[in-house]
Write a structure and sequence with these properties.
The chain is built from 8 helices and 5 strands, in the order αββαβαααααββα. By secondary structure, it is an alpha+beta fold. It has a 5-stranded mixed sheet with strand order 1-3-2-4-5. The protein is globular and about 55 Å long.
Length: about 200
C-alpha cells in the first residue's frame, strides 16, 4: 500500500520542479464587450460541461451581438472536478493561453472540440493557436494558475453557484436563456443610468 503514496509524493515533487520563469500566477483573461460598460454579465462555467458548451455557442454570441456595447462579459471558472476529470486542467490551460493573448480563442477551440478533451488535446489546441508550446506546457504543468481558478470557484460558491453554466447580471443570478439575460441586462442598464455620477 506504500506504492500510491510514493507515486503521489513523486508527482508532487515533479510539479514543484517545473521552471516557472516567465510565468505569472495572475489571470490576464480579457472581458468581452465594452470594458467600461456599467452592466457586468458574469458566466460561471466549466470547460468540460456540455451545457456550458451549448451556452457558449447559443447564448454568449447572441448577447454580445445584441448588447456588446452595453455589457462587460466576464468568464469565471467553476470546474466541477468531481464529475469532469479534465475541467481543472482545461481551466489552467485557458489561463495559460490568456497569458499569450489567446484566452477566448482557446475557450472557443475547447468548446468546439469538447468531446476530445484530454491532456494531450489541450497541448494540440495550444499548438493550433500558435502559442509558444514550451511556455504553454510549462505553465500548465506548474499549476501556477490553480489559485486563480480556485478563487473564481470560491467567488461562485459565495454568490450561490450550484451548477454550470450560471449567469449573474450586476451580481444578481439570472436564468440561462437569452430572454432572461436580456431582460436582466435591460433592467440593470436602466438602474445604472438612474444613479447620479
Amino acid at each position: 500500500m506504500r506504492l500510491p503514496f510514493i507515486t503521489l509524493t513523486l508527482s508532487l515533487v515533479l510539479v514543484a520542479c517545473v521552471d516557472t520563469t516567465g510565468l505569472s500566477a495572475e489571470s490576464s483573461r480579457p472581458l468581452k464587450g465594452n470594458p467600461s460598460a456599467l452592466v457586468l454579465v458574469q458566466e460561471f462555467a466549466d470547460l468540460q460541461c456540455p451545457a456550458c458548451k451549448a451556452a457558449h455557442e447559443q447564448i454568449n454570441g447572441a448577447l454580445l451581438e445584441q448588447y456588446g456595447d452595453s455589457i462587460r462579459l466576464e468568464f469565471m471558472h467553476f470546474p466541477l472536478r468531481g464529475i469532469h476529470p479534465y475541467a481543472m486542467e482545461a481551466a489552467e490551460a485557458a489561463e495559460c493561453a490568456a497569458d499569450q493573448g489567446k484566452f477566448w480563442e482557446f475557450v472557443d477551440m475547447n468548446y468546439a472540440n469538447q468531446s476530445s478533451l484530454k491532456s494531450a488535446a489541450l497541448r494540440e489546441w495550444g499548438a493550433a493557436l500558435k502559442l509558444d508550446s514550451a511556455l504553454f506546457d510549462r505553465c500548465i504543468e506548474s499549476d501556477i494558475k490553480e489559485d486563480t481558478i480556485l478563487a473564481d470557484y470560491a467567488e461562485g460558491q459565495k454568490m450561490g453557484v450550484n451548477g454550470t453554466p450560471s449567469y449573474y447580471v450586476n451580481g444578481k443570478k439570472v436564468g440561462s436563456s437569452v430572454e432572461e439575460l436580456g431582460a436582466a441586462i435591460d433592467a440593470a442598464a436602466t438602474e445604472a443610468a438612474a444613479v447620479p455620477l
